[in-house]
Design a protein that fits this description.
This protein has 274 residues and is mainly alpha-helical. It folds into 3 domains: 30 residues, no CATH class; 113 residues, Cytochrome c-like domain (Cytochrome Bc1 Complex, Chain D, domain 2); 86 residues, Cytochrome Bc1 Complex, Chain D, domain 2. The protein is built from 12 helices and 4 strands, in the order ααααααββααααββαα. The strands form 2 sheets. A two-stranded antiparallel sheet has the order 1-2. A two-stranded antiparallel ribbon has the order 3-4. Helix 11 packs across helix 12. The N terminus is likely disordered. Bound molecules: heme C (2 copies). The site of one heme C has 23 residues, from helix 6 and helix 7.
Length: 274
């Protein structure tokens, strides 16, 4: 087969896989999600990228509500960033970090938002905690890591797979009662019958499966507390190890289970700043 034909075939496959724009723009379908694994960086140095990666995957041990140093307890729960930003921010349609560094600063709701502000958005909502100081070693490390995972990716577009995969509007109004049935069948075995998740073996701090509601969950102002966001996340990523191109629930089940989860009790959010 001629080179251009192979090229077209690859373009079609790439488009089907959701990476078409990468091909179109750059002449070859690059998988921006595959590179930049911080696990390959040498340990035992004070490399901010490596520390940032540790903060993303072992958040509660460093800055969680039960962290060893009381002054470092910035988060109000024991969630880890990677519980939602799957594979440490390197999974398509699981709110990845690939195009994040180059997306900031941005204007959002008429506010000028830096990357540090956005990280603190998750600190005060998803992590139910307080903001990290802008000049802290931790904030610098988060930013260094986020920059690292996007290195070399196009700087003027958000690559395909950023954010969450939009879900078509539900055919029937999302229903928490039907959602409870979906939850019992497809979620409770990991997240627990009461949504409390299951903790890692001590002395490790954090979760093998994170809580979805209750006092140690994300708060009511978090993105994940919004039914549309939860439905899109769950449809593409849950049960764990599902990927967007081979989903497990159908659209209606995702809407229904999201209606159930987002109407369960959780900590109140911070007051919205006007
Ligand atoms: C409970 C789930 C959850 C947790 C935990 C969480 N986040 Fe998020 N985060 C989200 C969601 C949802 C979004 C918005 C995704 C979208 O629609 O673009 C987001 C967006 C972001 C963004 C903006 C990304 C972009 O390119 O626009 C950053 C940066 C971020 N989070 C950092 C963090 C960090 C750092 C932590 C850990 C300290 C964290 N988040 C913990 C759910 C979470
Ligand atoms: C096989 C175990 C398993 C099953 C089944 C499962 N999950 Fe998860 N879920 C996880 C794990 C593990 C994570 C965190 C992923 C990580 O840290 O890499 C997670 C993360 C999440 C998150 C984001 C983190 C948070 O605290 O909110 C949501 C929302 C979620 N799951 C909802 C669901 C729903 C709804 C179902 C049922 C449709 C479900 N999950 C089924 C294991 C599971």
């Amino acid at each position: 087969m001629g080179g251009w034909r192979t090229g077209i075939l690859i373009a079609i496959l790439a488009a089907a896989a959701g990476f078409g724009a990468g091909y179109w723009r750059w002449g070859w379908p690059v998988d921006w999600y595959a590179g930049h694994d911080a696990a390959a960086l040498p340990a035992g140095t004070d490399d901010p990228v490596r520390y940032g990666w540790q903060l993303v995957i072992s958040t509660p041990e460093h800055i969680g509500r039960n962290a060893a140093a009381p002054a470092m307890r910035y988060a109000g729960n024991d969630l880890a960033c990677t519980n939602c930003h799957l594979n440490a921010g390197r999974q398509a349609y699981a709110a990845p970090f690939i195009s994040t560094f180059t997306s900031f600063p941005m204007i959002s709701d008429d506010r000028y938002l830096t990357l540090a502000d956005r990280i603190n958005g998750c600190m005060t909502r998803s992590m139910n905690g307080r903001p990290l100081p802008g000049d802290s070693r931790e904030m610098e490390a988060f930013i260094a890591y986020i920059r690292f995972v996007g290195q070399g990716s196009p700087s003027d577009i958000r690559i395909p797979g950023m954010g969450l995969r939009p879900l078509p509007a539900p055919k029937q109004a999302p229903d928490a009662t039907r959602g409870r049935t979906v939850y019992a069948a497809s979620c409770a075995r990991c997240h627990g019958p009461e949504g409390a998740g299951s903790r890692l073996e001590p002395p490790r701090i954090g979760y093998a499966a994170p809580p979805l509601w209750g006092e140690d969950s994300f708060n009511a102002a978090a993105g994940m507390a919004d039914m549309r966001i939860a439905a899109a996340f769950v449809r593409a990523n849950m049960p764990f190890e599902t990927t967007y191109d081979d989903p497990s629930l159908n659209d209606q089940q995702a809407w229904d289970v999201a209606a159930f989860v987002t109407t369960q009790p959780r900590p109140a959010g911070p007051q919205r700043t006007p």
